[in-house]
Amino acid sequence: MKIRILFFLNLAVTVCLAQIGVSIIPQPVIMKVNSGNFIIDAHTAIQFNSNQKELKSAADFLTTNVKNISGYSLQINVAKQKVIQLMIVEMPQIGDEGYQMDVTTTSVTIKANTKSGIIYGIQSLLQTLPAICTNVTLQVPCMNITDYPRFKYRGMHIDESRHFFGPDVVKEYINLMASYKMNTFHWHLVDDQGWRIEIKKYPKLTSVGAWRVDHNDKVWGSRPQAKPGEEATYGGYYSQEQIKEIIKYAAERNITIIPEIEMPGHVASAIASYPALSCTQKPQLPLTGGNYTDMSSNYCAGNDSVFTFLEKVLTEVIELFPSKYIHIGGDEVDKGPWKVCPKCQAKIKTDHLVNEEGLQSYFIKRIEKFMKSKNRKIIGWDEILEGGLAPEATVMSWRGEAGGIEAAKAQHDVIMTPGSPVYFDHYQAGPEGEPLAIGGMNTLKKVYDYEPIPKELNAIEAKYILGAQANLWTEYVTTAEHVEYMVLPRMLALAEVLWTQKENKSWENFNERLQSHFKAFGQKGLHFSSGNFTVSIKPTSQNAKLFVNLSTEIMNAQIYYTTDGTEPTLSSNKYTDPIEINLSLLLKASTVVNGRIMGAQAARQNFVLHKAIGKTVTYTNPVSKYYPADGPNSLTDGVKGTDAVGKHWHGFSGNDLIANIDLGEEKNIQSIGLGCLQNYNDWIFLPQSVLFESSIDGIIFTEIKTIPNTLDIKQKKAMFEFKADFPILSARYVRVSAKNNLCPVGHSGAGKPGWIFVDEIVVE
Ligand code: ACM
Ligand code: ZN
Asked: The CATH number of the domain where 302 resides is what?
């Protein structure tokens, strides 16, 4: 027994001493730490003016949190030696969400214009305390803080259609958001794979639409469609009572919930419930994964009863959610069904709409009109720009920033959520050693460095950028632990992007503060990523020589590397300056922290020296703006693509690669190779064939060889070099043409254009 007590005391002392210094995230506007501490113990009380009734819940929030940490029940509005004073006072200079906190040895005073500001002050106060510290006095360092946010929209999204998590996980998510002063929760409640909100007028939306046949054991894109008669056992939904409770829980933490009721596409779950809502009106079941094939997933835009349905649904939604905004989706509408639907086509004719994009615009505008009549505003994904934006719509820019820029220039409000860097379903490290993700790479630093105001906007246009949001789509995220892992710590970086004044941001300082948050996550049993340990390998050329820069996001780390293909160890070369590459080699590099090699696998990069290095490449068809590799001459920079999508690859969607290289002078050549990637799940396929040609004058080209794709690799991931060896010939120009494929039968995009990804053209 004695030993157990000693053990616990020891633990308590260790835990409590661990919290030294002030590590508030997001960094406040002004913060001055003084000597001395305010002690929270049995002699401490919370006080507020009882006329300011709204502060009761703020006081309760602080009381609950302190009790959870230390076990002390702070009393409210009783006389004690030491007080935590909460005060609503007029302080116009700090705005609606700002607060001022002054901590001395005898008092903590938190002042603000609103209860929101008081709650933020409390959140800052809580961040100075240990995560758990039972039966030990809590110390708050004496300090003065004046603080307010840079952006008014600070959002986090979660997709509960692809996976239903339930109230406890959502509340935990909201709590985490609140700790970092995020103020808007975008709740994606409707999509093809599940309808998650009870609508009393349409009970089948949840009795049918919330349930799908369980193929969760298979990868998202390769799940078979449900067959008639199969039992739908996977899913769930929120009752209206549960939703009310979650809205209240969020409001107590300053969080507004914006529900997303997706339309007109991504609604297979609604059509499964009420087939008359689609163009074909055929019965179907909610999607089991990403495989659409012959599923109907759009509402019919030419059928008035669809709008009657939606108005009734939205009326119930509006009664539940007090938010000024309701998100109505609008993304990725497959216009195919509308093109062949008599009702949709008739609507296009009678309303003189230009085409199906015009029909989408008509749809969104009609819904906006209804929402306006209910005194609400709509938000839509950036596709709502196509065919003409609804007059007062707010645009969520997800396909990069272009939609947001266009909308802001047209004087519409914008929320920035570009896939890179704020899609938190993308990898944050590795990808070796990481849980399977949808793709992409949004590291902590990439998030931290994000600037929501694009440089294309002038000061007036910039005012339309309300803020930004991270999105967590859950095709690959199905547990609470995984949710935590994907948002911690990236959400903290985003919080600092959105709250902290730009000039107060510091990556180094953020990392220092982050350490105590990591400790707290550990103590609370939260799952988090400790960082991206993959070394970044960046080639540059100087004076016609090829160099590589190595860097790591990890602070206080070193980099060790090899050039002989072996794995780096602590006895390998330590990186100090850019490395000159003057022969073909494989470079491998690892991050080392405190004498330990970190990460699941060393970063690797092949370099090849050949006759086309540095030569200009022109394309007959444009390279995708999403996959530009390192710029126009990536195919001749000596750097080969790796199996990470996006890394050094040029991507072509739906058309062929036709690359023309001018070698500058006639050269003797005897082989040409083109590196290609296949990544079946990402719609990237090896070309059907590659044609190699040469020319002396750049006008008349002669075929050297055509290499067909004869590999039998089906759905495998692969890198393959199509290579032609031939007797020496003299040429100044080389042309390489790679034939694109449609997605094959059985693939989720069957019959649609696929991608080809190409890297170095090696000429020897
Ligand atoms: C989206 O990611 N489809 C909005
Ligand atoms: Zn139709």
From this structure: 3.20.20.80
- Give me the residues paired with residue 415 across strands: 396, 467
Dist. CA 224–CA 291, nearest whole Å: 7
Which is nearest to 336 in space by CA: 345, 327, 346?
345
Domain co-membership, 415 together with 325: yes
Residue 563: is its pLDDT beyond 90?
yes
Smallest-distance ligand from the CA of 337? 2
Ligand 1 atom at minimum distance from 396 CA? 4
Cβ–ligand 1 distance for 381 under 6 Å, the answer: yes
Which of 398, 416, 424, 438 is the pocket-test mutation for ligand 1 (most atoms within 8 Å of CB)? 398
Ligand 1 atom closest to Cα of residue 423 = 2
For 270-331, give the DSSP string: HHHH-GGGSSS-------SSS--TT---S--TT-HHHHHHHHHHHHHHHHH---SEEEEE--
DSSP 8-state assignment for residue 238: B
- Contact between 286 and 192 under an 8 Å Cβ cutoff? The reply is yes
Q: Which of 605, 151, 231, 620 is nearest to 422 (CA)?
A: 151
Is any atom of ligand 1 closer than 6 Å to the C-beta of 332? yes
Q: Is the CB of 398 under 6 A from ligand 1?
A: yes
> CATH number, domain at 638?
2.60.120.260
Distance 417 CA to ligand 1 centre (A): 9
Catalytic residue among 186, 188, 215, 266: 266
Closest residue to atom 3 of ligand 1, CA basis: 331
The distance from CA 471 to its chain's CA centroid, rounded to whole angstroms, is: 5
CATH number for the domain spanning 538: value is 2.60.40
- Phi then psi dihedrals of residue 169, to 5 deg: -70, -40
d(CA 670, CA 259): 61
Q: Which of 679, 764, 682, 689 has its CA nearest to residue 722? A: 689
With a cut of 60, say whether residue 704 has pLDDT above it: yes
What dihedral angle (degrees, nearest 10) is formed by the CA atoms of 127, 132, 138, 140? -10
Q: Nearest Cα to 605, choosing from 572, 557, 639?
A: 639
- What lies within 8 Å, CB to CB, of 167 at 6+ separation is 238, 242, 245, 246
At residue 125's C-alpha, the angle toward residues 513 and 70, to 5°, is 100
Q: Give Cβ neighbours of residue 761 (< 8 Å, ≥ 6 apart).
A: 612, 617, 635, 636, 659, 661, 672, 673, 674, 734, 736
> Which ligand ends up closest to the CA of 276?
2
Q: Which domain holds residue 124?
A: 30-147
User: From the CA of 301, how far away is ligand 2's center (Å)?
Assistant: 5
What's the whole-number mean pLDDT along residues 512-538?
Answer: 95
User: How high is the mean pLDDT of the chain?
Assistant: 92
**Angle formed by the axes of helices 304-320 and 240-251, to 10°?**
50
Percent above pLDDT 70 for the chain: 96
163 is known as an active-site residue: no
Nearest-ligand number for the alpha carbon of 306: 2
- Total domains, the chain: 4
Residues 400-434: b if buried by 16+ CB within 10 A, e if exposed: bbebbbbbbeeebbbbbbbbbbbbbbbbbbbbeeb
The arithmetic mean of pLDDT across residues 59-80, rounded, is: 92
Residue 505 domain flag: no
Query: In this structure, are 598 and 616 located in the same domain?
Result: no
Q: Output the CA angle 139-141-144, nearest 5 degrees.
A: 140
CB 145 within 8 A of CB 500: no
Q: Is 431 helix (H, G, I), strand (E, B) or coil?
A: coil
Average pLDDT over residues 277-296: 91
**Catalytic entry in 191, 192, 198, 461:** 191
> Could you tell me which residue, 18 or 691, shows the higher pLDDT?
691
Q: Would residue 266 show up in a list of annotated catalytic residues for this protein?
A: yes
Q: Are 111 and 225 contained in the same domain?
A: no
- In percent, how much of the chain has pLDDT > 90? 80
CA of 761 to the centre of ligand 1 (A): 34
Instruction: Using alpha carbons, list the distances in angstroms from residue 49 to 46, 55, 132, 271.
Output: 11, 8, 30, 54
